Amino acid sequence: MKTHVSKLKKSKILVTGGAGYIGSHTLVELDLAGYDFVVYDNFCNSSKESLRRVSKLINKNILFENGDIRDSEKLQQLFTKYNIEHVIHFAGLKAVGESVETPIKYYDNNVNGTLVLLDCMKKNNCKKIVFSSSATVYGDPSSTPIEEDFPLNPTNPYGKSKLFIEEILRDVFISDPEFKIVLLRYFNPVGAHVSGTIGEDPSGTPNNLMPFIAQTAVGKREFVSVFGDDYNTHDGTGVRDYIHVVDLAQGHLKAIQIINNITEVLTLNLGTGNGYSVLEMIKAFEKASSKNIPYKIERRREGDIASCFADPSYSFEVLKWKATKTLDEMCKDSWRWQSNNPNGYK
Ligand code: UD1
Q: What are the respective helix, strand and coil percentages of the chain, to the nearest 5?
């Protein structure tokens, strides 16, 4: 009887880490497309305020449960309570430097957390998962643009945790081909929802370039440190594939929409295919914000690579998706979020 009742419940997407930067933007796109979801997050690196803001944007209450991805009992309660058909798995730690200092914590959260989740999914016969991987799994590529079948060589525990999870998911598929698995390798997410109400809210000093530029533009930081101008790139500074977070969120939606049709583990780059240098990013942000952004050239950051950008053609072929937002939109939207919320969600 109980099973029968639960089958009647409308199916939902479980979004782990749904309060985070990419997760919160994905919730908006899922809602727009008519999907129901439940968020599972322990808010260790995110805030409930992001969910309140999403709730306002979509004009609906958001179902969420506060819990850790490694807590199998809590996860089981969630699967019992809701009819979960898909999982989008964002929950994880993501600071490269911290991962070098505390690898056990990173492997426990990211790898062990995913194992607990997969075990629970399997026990509850939920077999569709979209996983947040990262272009960091490629390490220093021998050439650009990067295709999905390039060698994988992450250089730090964070990146390795992403690769290990990818490998685990491939083995899960081999053992049970009913699983439908999409691995999304993100390039460099930037920007914010056009409303300026949700965006990236890094705790402490940002590690990534875009939040650092935005905080400098708003006056929270004196200048941007440009990590090296002697790379083999067109202006000597590092080149990356910056992708608007709303484009990225729509990539997840497309993955959910095609997941029933896949017959093998699908591995996709989510990038634009364009590479911009650090100096180009600073200039573009100055233009979008009409602010002067002071910068200083400093030494290279250890572990950085010269150039990294995607070949997004396979994603286009499979998902019928491509990033459409321009660099100017990325900067304008980041600026709107930063200037409206100089202290993030606090
Ligand atoms: C970083 C992570 C990567 C992660 C990605 C997620 C490292 C080594 N890599 O990638 O694993 O998946 O973020 O967003 O941390 N830069 C400056 N000044 C700054 C910050 C960055 O000049 O204050 C430069 C960097 O040298 C690089 C570019 O800006 O050339 C982008 O840096 P960042 O935003 O940290 O991203 P990645 O290094 O590509």
A: 45, 20, 40
Going along the chain from its start, the domains and CATH numbers come out as 11-190+242-271 (3.40.50.720)
Whether 208 lines ligand 1, by a CB cut-off of 6 Å, is yes
* Minimum CA distance residue for ligand 1 atom 4: 136
Atom of ligand 1 nearest to the CA of 301: 26
* Residue 141 alpha carbon to ligand 1 centre in Å: 15
Ligand 1 centroid from CA 176, angstroms: 37
- Find the farthest-apart pair of alpha carbons in the chain and give their distance in angstroms, rounded: 68
**297, β-bridge pairs:** 226
List of residues 6+ apart from 174 with CB closer than 8 A: none
271-328 pLDDT per residue, tens:
999 999 999 999 999 999 999 999 999 999 999 999 999 999 999 999 999 999 999 9
